[in-house]
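thought: fold this chain, then report.
action: predict
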Amino acid sequence: MSAAEPGAATPGGYDRRRELQAFDDTKAGVKGLVDAGVTSIPAIFRHPPASLDLDTTYSSSGGDDAAAAIIPVVDLSGAPREEVVAQMKAAAESVGFFQVVNHGVPGELMAAVLSGVRRFNEGPLEAKRRAYTRDTARKVRFSSNFDLFQSAAANWRDTLFCELAPVPPPPEELPEPIRDVMLEYGEAATRLALRVLELLSESLGLPGGRLREMGCAEGLNVVSHYYPPCPEPDLTLGTSRHTDADFVTVLLQDGTGGLQVLLDGAGGNGGRRGWVDVPPLPGALIVNIGDLLQVHLSSLFTTPWLIVCFLRFAMVDRCLLCLARAVPCSS
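observation:
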């Protein structure tokens, strides 16, 4: 095993695997490091310079207004349906990653789920330890980095995972801070995902229910990422560059920012390529067309997608992202 491989020990005696295991055994996550008062991040979280040195031309050369102009915003109410369908098709063909407003998910519910996730992560350590597991058979689980022992560098985040469909967990399995809101939020996010799938179907000239009939929204996972303050934000990431291995992701971010998406140069925007900020838009939800849906749609839309996201630390405060992911039925 080379020193560059996950879990490798260096010639100087640094045992990465041992440090990973010691961190995981605390069951306190990244928040536990922050609470312990770390002033420098452990080596397991340090990313190689190449993964941090990304082209962020769009992010630095126009601010939020320029970024907002690149990321489409689709208004789901008010306009005639054919106009909404046209907006959806344009957004899917140009970027495949867009924000939706007037989407039907109450603002109070979005605020409540963010508040609940925040209270869980900032609440008693023993409650988090009870939920901490790497057993993927559990419908509700808390951990830090699902790929902790496989990735080249860990991300600075903790995650609360809830599998809500096709069979929801018993309410008592949900941590108390989210017990009264998570199932309701999951139902609302599912309705929105189904609406997006319906509009995408119609934009292709297909019956509105076609994608739903193909099983694109039978399962639902709500994945809530908590990003604590980082003492050395230039050395790590909240989320490494990735694509979403699902049908549709409905993403709720708080007002902190940091989320970026890669324009691959194949769609609109003059064929330009680079990372662009996705500035928080009050009341909006973000829709990301996932890998599995792209398989169904790539032969139908004129533009091939490469929808890659990551979260860079540009803050000293904590950040929250809640992702409702439509996935294949696992039962």
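thought: worth noting. The two ends are 37 Å apart (CA to CA).
final: tokens above.
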